[in-house]
Write a structure and sequence with these properties.
globular, mainly alpha, two-stranded antiparallel sheet, 16 helices, Farnesyl Diphosphate Synthase
Length: 327
C-alpha cells in the first residue's frame, strides 16, 4: 500500500511532466496559462483520491494515472472559470489566471482544459472505460449545475439550508465522490464497493465544503491563499449566513439583511459587521457541529466497506487531513 504522501509525490511528478509539455506547446497563449494554473499547487486531493481508491485493490498506480490526471485537469479548469465568474483576483496566493493573462485567454484555456481531461481518460486501458467516461461526464455536468445554483443564490433571499446542501453536493462533493469511484472502477472493484466509496466521498465532500465556508470567515489570512470574507462580500449563501438568518433575533437579522441588500459598501466593513453577528450567534461552533456530522457519516460508510482494515488506513488519514486543514 502506498501512503498518501507517496501518492502525492507520484501525482506531483506527473503534473510537472504535463506542465513541461505545455510550456513547449503552441500556441503559447493557450497552453502556458494551463501550465500556470496547474503549477499553483494545492493538495491535489482529488487525483490523490483516485489513486488511493485504486490502490485499495491494485498496486500498479501507473495504470490509474490517466484517470487521476483527468480529474486534476478538470478540477483546475473549474477553478479557472470560477475565478472569472467570482472576479477572484487571487488563487493560492498567486494572481488568478485571468488576472495574470486576461479574461478571454483564461476562458479559452479553460475550455481547452475541459477537453484535455477527456484526452487523459482515453489513455486509460481499463476494461470499464465506458463506465468511467459516463461517470466523469455526469459529474462534470453536475458541477456546472452546482455552480449555476451558487450564482443564482447570490441574488436570492429565498434560499434554504436544504437548497444550500444540494448546491454544495453538486458543486463540490460529487467530484470528490466521483474521484473515489473512478479509482475503484479503474481497479475493477465490485459495484457495491465502488458505490460505497462514492457515498463516503459525498459525505466527506459536504464536510469539506462546510469547512471551506468556515475558513472563508475564520481562517488565518496568511495561510488561506485568498481574501478572507470573500463569500460575505459576494453574498454567497453559505451555511454560516443561512444559519445566522435562521436563528438570529430581529436586530441581528436586520444587520445581516441591511448589508446583503446594499449595492455600494466598504468590503472590509461588511465582513467585519457580519462576522460580528456570526460571533454573537456562535455560528462557528454550529458549523463545526455540521462538519463533524458529515465527517462521521463518511467514516461510518467506510467502516462498512468489506475490505481488510489496513486497506482503509490511508483513506481514513485523508479524511482526517481534510477535516483538520486550516487553509
Amino acid at each position: 500500500m502506498y501512503t498518501f504522501d507517496d501518492i502525492q509525490s507520484v501525482i506531483t511528478s506527473e503534473v510537472e511532466r504535463e506542465i513541461k509539455n505545455l510550456s513547449e506547446t503552441e500556441p503559447g497563449n493557450l497552453y502556458q496559462p494551463i501550465g500556470y494554473a496547474l503549477s499553483m499547487g494545492g493538495k491535489r486531493l482529488r487525483p490523490a483520491m483516485v489513486l488511493l481508491a485504486y490502490n485499495m485493490f491494485r498496486d500498479n498506480l501507473t495504470d490509474a494515472l490517466p484517470v487521476a490526471m483527468a480529474v486534476e485537469v478538470f478540477h483546475n479548469f473549474t477553478l479557472l472559470h470560477d475565478d472569472i465568474m467570482d472576479k477572484a483576483e487571487m488563487r493560492r496566493n498567486n494572481p488568478s489566471v485571468y488576472k495574470k493573462y486576461n479574461e478571454n485567454i483564461a476562458i479559452l484555456s479553460g475550455d481547452a482544459m475541459s477537453i484535455m481531461a477527456y484526452e487523459y481518460l482515453l489513455k486509460s486501458n481499463s476494461a470499464r472505460l465506458p463506465e468511467i467516461i459516463r461517470l466523469f461526464s455526469q459529474t462534470a455536468l453536475e458541477v456546472c449545475e452546482g455552480q449555476q445554483y451558487d450564482m443564482d443564490f447570490e441574488s436570492s433571499l429565498e434560499v434554504s439550508i436544504a437548497d444550500y446542501l444540494n448546491m454544495i453536493r453538486l458543486k463540490t462533493a460529487v467530484l470528490l465522490a466521483a474521484s473515489l469511484k473512478l479509482g475503484a472502477l479503474a481497479a475493477d472493484a465490485s459495484e457495491k464497493v465502488a458505490c460505497q466509496l462514492y457515498d463516503f466521498g459525498l459525505n466527506l465532500g459536504i464536510a469539506f465544503q462546510l469547512q471551506d465556508d468556515l475558513l472563508d470567515v475564520f481562517a488565518d489570512q496568511s495561510k488561506f491563499g485568498k481574501r478572507i470574507g470573500g463569500d460575505i462580500v459576494a453574498n454567497k449563501k453559505t451555511f454560516l449566513l443561512l444559519k445566522a438568518l435562521e436563528i438570529s433575533d430581529i436586530q441581528s437579522k436586520a444587520v445581516i439583511l441591511n448589508w446583503v441588500q446594499k449595492e455600494e459598501f466598504n468590503p472590509e466593513e461588511k465582513v467585519r459587521e457580519i462576522s460580528g453577528v456570526y460571533n454573537q450567534l456562535n455560528i462557528k461552533r454550529i458549523t463545526e457541529g455540521q462538519i463533524d456530522f458529515y465527517f462521521q457519516a463518511a467514516v461510518d460508510i467506510l467502516d462498512e466497506v468489506e475490505l481488510p482494515e489496513e486497506k482503509k488506513t490511508e483513506m481514513k488519514k485523508l479524511a482526517r487531513l481534510i477535516l483538520s486543514r486550516d487553509h
